Amino acid sequence: MWCKRLACLLKVPCQPSGSAGHRSSWILHGSRTVLVAAARWHHKAPESLRCAWQLHGDHLELRYANTLMRFDFVWLRDHCRSASCYNAKTNQRSLDTASVDLGIKPKAVRVDETTLFLTWPDGHVTRYGLEWLVKNSYEGQKQQVMHPRILWNAEIYRQAQVPSIDCRSFLETDKGLKEFLQNFLLYGIAFVENVTPTKEDTEILAERVSLIRETIYGRMWYFTSDFSRGDTAYTKLALDRHTDTTYFQEPCGIQVFHCLKHEGTGGRTLLVDGFYAAEQVLQQAPDQFELLSKVPLKHEYVENVGDCHNHMIGVGPVLNVYPWNNELYLIRYNNYDRAVINTVPYDVVHRWYAAHRTLTAELRRPENELWVKLKPGKALFVDNWRVLHGREAFTGYRQLCGCYLTRDDVLNTARLLGLQA
Ligand SMILES: C[N+](C)(C)CCCC[C@H](N)C(=O)O
Ligand SMILES: O=C(O)CCC(=O)C(=O)O
Ligand SMILES: [Fe+2]
């Protein structure tokens, strides 16, 4: 029956009964090269045949491995991996995309067991692996998460019994580093223990994972409650949950904390999974989640203390999601550092406050709070794009050191160790 249909397609477009009238045709894999013809034709691929395609006026529809994909012709031409279009050694495109006719259309299509072949009007042939197409199509990508994670509240995190990684194994073995990074990617926090409590040793840890991100606070910072900078971090006050450097256009990706000394009381560290809280908002009030992901706000840091003069402004929504799959990748939450809201009209601003309240209520649920006392020797890495931190007020002398890391480089290290990041 399929052969007949094909024959029909090759000659004259045919009209099946009940056709919706699409000018298109499904072609099964295993067919010979056929001239592209528009046909009013709908057909279901028999189950034994895994791949079927259909050519439309401006795109190719392909069904493979239970995925229905639509490819724009310019996209297909742009993604030609032939030697003249793509440098497989450097993984860089050599084709000049701007030279592709925006009205381009393949003049012939063929599919075999593993590969789609397109012949372009100038005779150039492009081959695409079917698996490659599934992986790289919009539809295929949409089904995948970019960053596999385990969202947690205190109970979930405790139950998981995520181990701290021993400093030696972290520094000296890929296995140790990989285990650490896997924990970090899944939970947004990870601990290294048995670290020598000095700034220099903390720096060696940081450098094992990434490049250090130098900021206005320096490369490796070191702080006590000495008011040396114009920020409440440099006091003994309690700090409510927040993410850092919200006033940077790109907030720091990771924060490393290592408590070198504390002679006194209090000063526990609070950790809250911002994505867990945001997920609760999404479940309860999707409109509020959407608002938090759409309304841009400013955060600001104005400092004039001693020789430190800084004025930083970062703009962006509280929740940042990938538009194609709605997956969260960054929460920017710091009520101390949030600037005057002047980017939002009054009616939206009221709804934004309501949404912010819902999120804050989730972030403040006691069951979502993980409290830990940082001790000399135990370094904490926090995903500053996901996990909020805070601290309890304290007495006595307390000295903390640490640094920020560039996120790209942490993920780079993770990918090189074979992790999905
Ligand atoms: C970590 N270190 C003490 C260097 C800086 C603290 C910066 C604090 C600032 N309010 C913020 O949240 O970004
Ligand atoms: O003192 C602390 O434990 C953390 C303070 C803080 O929020 C920070 O340094 O970013
Ligand atoms: Fe902070």
From TrEMBL:
Residues 161-404 form the TauD/TfdA-like domain. Residues 57-133 form the Gamma-butyrobetaine hydroxylase-like N-terminal domain. Keywords: Carnitine biosynthesis, Dioxygenase, Iron, Metal-binding, Mitochondrion, Oxidoreductase, Transit peptide. Its EC number is 1.14.11.8. It comes from the Eukaryota. One of its GO terms (biological process) is carnitine biosynthetic process. InterPro entries: AlphaKG_dependent_hydroxylases (IPR050411), GBBH-like_N (IPR010376), GBBH-like_N_sf (IPR038492), TauD-like_sf (IPR042098), TauD/TfdA-like (IPR003819), Trimethyllysine_dOase (IPR012776). SUPFAM superfamilies: Clavaminate synthase-like (SSF51197). Its cofactor is Fe(2+); L-ascorbate. It is found in: Mitochondrion matrix. It catalyses: N(6),N(6),N(6)-trimethyl-L-lysine + 2-oxoglutarate + O2 = (3S)-3-hydroxy-N(6),N(6),N(6)-trimethyl-L-lysine + succinate + CO2. GO terms for cellular component: mitochondrial matrix. Pathway: Amine and polyamine biosynthesis; carnitine biosynthesis. This is Trimethyllysine dioxygenase, mitochondrial. It comes from Cuculus canorus (Common cuckoo).
